[in-house]
Amino acid sequence: MNKPKVLFFVDRMRVGGIQTLLVHLFEQPEFSAIQPELLLLDDGQEYDLKQKVEQMGIPVHQLKGIWVKSPKDYLAYCKAMKNFFAAHHDYQAVHMNSGPKNFFVLYYAKQYGIPVRIAHSHNTGYQTSSKAQIWLGECFKLPLRRYASHYLACSDLAGAWMFGKKNQKSGRVQVIPNGIELEKYQFNQQIRDEVRSEWDVQQGTLVIGNVGRFTKQKNHGFLLEIFAELCKIKPNSKLVLSGIGEEMERAKSKAQELEIQDKVLFLGFRQDVPRIVQGMDVFLMPSLYEGFPVTAVEAQASGLPCVFTDTITREAAILPNVGYLSLSQSPCEWAQACTELAHSVNRQECTQQLEQAGYSIHEMARCLIQLYITGKGTKA
């Protein structure tokens, strides 16, 4: 008997939380129950994560030359999407992991009779400051809700943002926590010592860390200002930043402007995140907005105290050693919170606590597979 085919949509496979999560899901044994395929748009660039998916033997479809920069691009987009589903519509489910501007994925999936059509909200804001694009996004939420058969979200806030507070409160949105491979994040003192040695960390040094793309959303400029204040409190401190992105050079210039460049390590893109978080003491995330950041789960799984902006859902505070501050509070107040939370948790016990709370990627995969195959979940 053939396995049910499931199509996953994300606009591009650049390094990001959603894309990395998809790759990890594809790797899980639970996903052997289906035949996954991936559908992408084309921004003119090639990405390593796309190649990784192809190397896993998963078919990757790309709408060549299709990328939405302005309203006029939707004409070519709609035609390409229609042609794709005309040729490929033997799916049991379509799982859309993107914002409302891509609702056409769900529209044509419904036109061609695909029974399970999932809209999955991973965020609580738009990745643009353009008023016109935000207005269009708000308009597109209505057809997205209409053509999706199931509403998923990584948090209550992300669900309310995409599907509306009424749908969230009524239970029409199914919240599935972003799971991780918890066993990889189990605290290990030997690994911690090795990593800190590589970073030339001296005994007593406080290491602040962040893992994320260098984008406006992640607010690296403010993060560096916080660290500059922290250095006034604890001069023997280091900041470790893992990630790549368009704002990276601006962040490096900011570090020089603040005269802290010799205390900041820019690691670039790393595939050994479970290892590098072992060497940190506090995880700092002053993002402008987030849905439910996977990195927040990863940090807590390794036993790191965390300091988050209050734009991040309170659901992200899985363990008690998490502090929330407003972006209106001063960098000095943020720095003080970091020093207060440092070394405040028994890191050995945290992985097990997260597993008990349901943040294993195996549990996430199990829930998704059940939804793909049976359609059982919170239906819209």
TrEMBL record:
Entry-linked Pfam families: Glyco_transf_4 (PF13439), Glycos_transf_1 (PF00534)
InterPro entries registered for this protein in UniProt: Glyco_trans_1 (IPR001296), Glyco_trans_4-like_N (IPR028098), Glycosyltransferase_grp1 (IPR050194)
Gene3D superfamilies per UniProt: Glycogen Phosphorylase B (3.40.50.2000)
Domain of life: Bacteria
GO MF terms, alphabetically ordered: glycosyltransferase activity
The Glycosyl transferase family domain, residue ranges: 192-345
The Glycosyltransferase subfamily 4-like N-terminal domain, residue ranges: 15-183
PANTHER family: SULFOQUINOVOSYL TRANSFERASE SQD2
Protein's name in the database: Glycosyltransferase family 1 protein
Species: Candidatus Allofournierella pullistercoris
